[in-house]
Amino acid sequence: MTTVRRFHSLDIFRFNNINLDKLTETYNISFYLSYLARWPDYFSVAVSPTDRLTSYIMGKAEGKGENWHGHVTAVTVDPQFRRVGLAAKMMKILEDVSEKKYDGYFVDLFVRKSNEVAKNMYTNLGYSIYRQVIGYYSGEEDAYDLRKALPRDVEKKSIIPLKRPV
């Protein structure tokens, strides 16, 4: 059975099997370590019974006032472990941290406009398109900013979509 635990700094040297997906953004080591140091509750990893890392999620809390929210910086699953609910499990962890520890209004993330599989998964998890961001991915591809309101946003103002791309 797969277990989920907090990400450890040495996990950086063990997650290439997860990170080598063409749709996964890869960052430098200092980026991962800065997230781990600043937002450790937002950085989790799933581990198989054979001690293989199967997925991870990293995020942060950001914004001010009614824009205070949890942000998913990266969530990815090893291709051999997809379609078993790991991404949904990781998202739930980040949503719970955003709600219970940081008292956020919503959770947001960016997804490539062309990534239909991810868009469908996030829609099934309750996310909706808030806005389109032109050239978000290195100026080459647009992104959708997807959002899911948390209980603090009683009126669901955070998920009212913008009418035009930004």
Please, could you describe this protein's structure?
There is one protein chain. With 166 residues, the chain is of the alpha+beta class. Helix content is 23%, strand content 32%. It has four helices and seven strands. The protein has helices at residues 16-19, 29-38, 86-101, 116-124; strands spanning 3-6, 44-47, 53-62, 69-77, 106-112, 128-137, 141-149. The protein has a seven-stranded mixed β-sheet with strand order 1-2-3-4-5-7-6, with helices on both faces. A hairpin with a 5-residue loop joins strand 2 and strand 3 (53-62). The longest helix is centred in the middle third of the chain and has 16 residues, at 86-101. The chain is globular.
Summarize the structure.
By secondary structure, the chain is an alpha+beta fold. Helices cover 23% and strands 32% of the residues. The termini are far apart.
Poorly predicted parts: none
* Number of distinct beta strands: 7
Terminal residue distance? 43 Å
- Quick one: biggest sheet? 7 strands, mixed
Helix and strand run:
EHHEEEHEHEE
Helix count, DSSP H or I runs of 4 or more residues? 4
Average pLDDT over all residues: 94
**CA-based gyration radius:** 16 Å
Coarse structural class: alpha+beta
Strand order of the largest sheet: 1-2-3-4-5-7-6
